[in-house]
Specification:
Blueprint lengths: L3 E6 L13 E6 L2 E7 L3 H8 L7 E3 L5 H4 L2 H10 L8 E5 L3 H8 L12 E5 L5 E4 L2 E7 L7 E7 L2 E5 L7 H7 L4 E5 L16 H7 L6 E4 L7 H12 L3 E3 L5 E3 L1
Parallel strand pairs: 3-4, 4-5, 5-6, 10-11, 11-12, 12-13
Antiparallel strand pairs: 1-2, 1-14, 2-3, 7-8, 8-9, 9-10
Length: about 250
Amino acid sequence: MPLSLTVLGTASLYPGPDHPCSGYLLRGGGAEVWVDAGPGTFAELQRHTDPTRLTAIWISHLHADHSADLLSAAYSYAFGGRTLPAPVPVYAPEDCAQRLAGFFGWSDAWFLGGVFDFRPLYDGHAVRHWNLRLTTRAVAHDTEAYGLRAECQGSVVAYSGDSGPCDALADLALGADVFLCEADADRHHEGEQQVHLTPEDAGAYAKGARELLLTHLGPTLIPEAAVGRAAAVFGGPTAAARTGQTKTV
């Protein structure tokens, strides 16, 4: 199975009509991995696969616009009559299980043991599912956050997660067929913590990749203009990710 990326949602901060928050489906080498679970993405996921077929779930960070639909998945698996062959591995920052348990009013997630198998991420974390290898790098955000590099039989998709400028992004993108990169910030303001990228930043970090796909565009950014700004720096094929599109590499 070739490596493919299906866009489940790209919205920053909150979902809109037909516009879910961040979420993606990676498929390759016999594996299917749900990457980020922003609000609305569990519904979109079901357009493309049966959730019981998921090999794993990977969460870049615990802000709600990237993780809240884990709750929808938990309800589906635990109470919706879906039969799982085994608990789904959830690769996420360490507090993910406790955060999810809080939605149910519990102090820990023991009751989800038959549904999710929580596995903490860290910088350099690497795991292989069938012929799909996932490598995690810590990135610069205002909470524990990670980017992802997915490799399958010589094809590579890299993902920034949410991040400000940092060297790990260039490392993730180097040699990637597609670099899926956030561009939430219109510009950086002097003296403020840089926790997101501008389109120009995304273009600069994508220079080692073959193609740049912008996502998580901030509410003040017009997609066509953001693509133009990023492309002017990157110099290669650049587009804005669209919900429902699938790219095979």
